[in-house]
TrEMBL record:
SUPFAM superfamilies hit by this protein: Protein kinase-like (PK-like)
Domain Protein kinase: from-to ranges: 10-286
Protein's recorded name: Protein kinase domain-containing protein
UniProt superkingdom: Eukaryota
GO MF annotation terms: ATP binding; protein serine/threonine kinase activity
A Pfam short name: PK_Tyr_Ser-Thr
Length: 295
């Protein structure tokens, strides 16, 4: 995996955006005489001694090596790593001008047709199935970790990083959920572990729950649990077994709502990523060939 240290220039003195556990920098990569816009993601952490930093960097690089080998149209490519943006090595990926799925839906929700929405969902389901076929669990599938390219395609990013970030910062999923991802996290990951110090580990089943939340978000233009303004309220709702409520508007067709509920069922009864991808693509095919459906 290439070390791009010394090949990047920051476009500003400060990070462009801040995630729950990381910072994003917009940079220019000087490559073979041309300039390419890239995003540099650095994992935030508390102060560590040099020995601990080296140990965690080795762990991070092992995980990133898996990402660097992945090749799929709906997976954000990892160009390499870079030092100098924090205590740990940082990731270098393409810069997506259309930003995240959440931001894209906020900006375009009024104009997106049902076909266009299912095209986005088809991209997400295809990327997720590919990850699972490579024995990779995403672990943090949210509207912020799906990026939209200039041609309007959706690409999955940051898979596997949530577990590392939680380890590095030394917190549980329950605590990290309050950093803005709780609306997409499977309930079993928020359960208080029986053993002290143990932490819940994401699985393909928990990814499917999160996909159900993405499906909800794309069809409605609203995040799951939109009726609650604060994430702490969402945590309480999940602890009580309350699932996101079905909005009156926009209308979600019964068969789509039924499939969302399947994704939110108890973990052993959720569909596989292959079944999810087949369902989404069958719905897209039907919409594209239904003469009564709006474009």
């Amino acid at each position: 995996m290439p070390d791009l240290t010394g090949q990047l220039n920051r476009t500003s003195s400060y990070a462009t955006s801040f995630g729950g556990l990381s910072d994003i920098w917009r940079c220019i990569w000087h490559k073979n005489g041309s300039n390419t816009q890239v995003a540099v993601k650095s994992i935030r952490s508390q102060a560590l001694d040099e020995k601990d930093v080296k140990k965690k960097n080795r762990r991070l690089l092992r995980e990133l090596k898996v990402w660097s080998r992945l090749r799929h149209d709906n997976i954000v490519p990892l160009y390499g790593t870079v030092s100098g943006f924090g205590q740990f090595v940082s990731l270098v990926c393409p810069w997506y001008d259309n930003g995240s799925l959440s931001g894209y839906l906020e900006s375009h929700s009024e104009t997106l047709s049902i076909i266009r929405r299912f095209q986005l969902l088809s991209d997400v389901s295809a990327g997720l199935q590919y990850l699972h076929s490579c024995s990779v669990v995403h672990g943090d599938l949210t509207g912020s970790n799906v990026l939209i390219s200039s041609d309007g395609r959706a690409h999955l990013s940051d898979f596997g990083l949530s577990v590392i970030a939680v380890e590095f910062v030394g917190m549980s999923y329950f605590t990290s959920a309050l950093n803005g991802t709780v609306r997409w996290i499977a309930p079993e990951l928020l359960a208080i572990p029986e053993e002290e110090g143990a932490t819940a580990i994401p699985t393909p089943n928990s990814d499917i729950y999160s996909f159900g939340c993405i499906l909800f978000q794309v069809l409605t233009g609203k995040p799951p649990y939109y009726e609650f303004k604060r994430d702490a309220q969402v945590v309480v709702a999940i602890s009580l077994g309350t699932q996101p409520s079905r909005p009156e508007l926009p209308v979600i067709f019964d068969h789509h709502w039924s499939f969302i509920k399947d994704c939110w069922s108890i973990k052993d009864r959720r569909p596989s990523s292959q079944q999810v991808d087949e369902y989404i693509k069958s719905q897209l095919y039907f919409l594209q060939h239904d003469t009564s459906s709006p474009d």
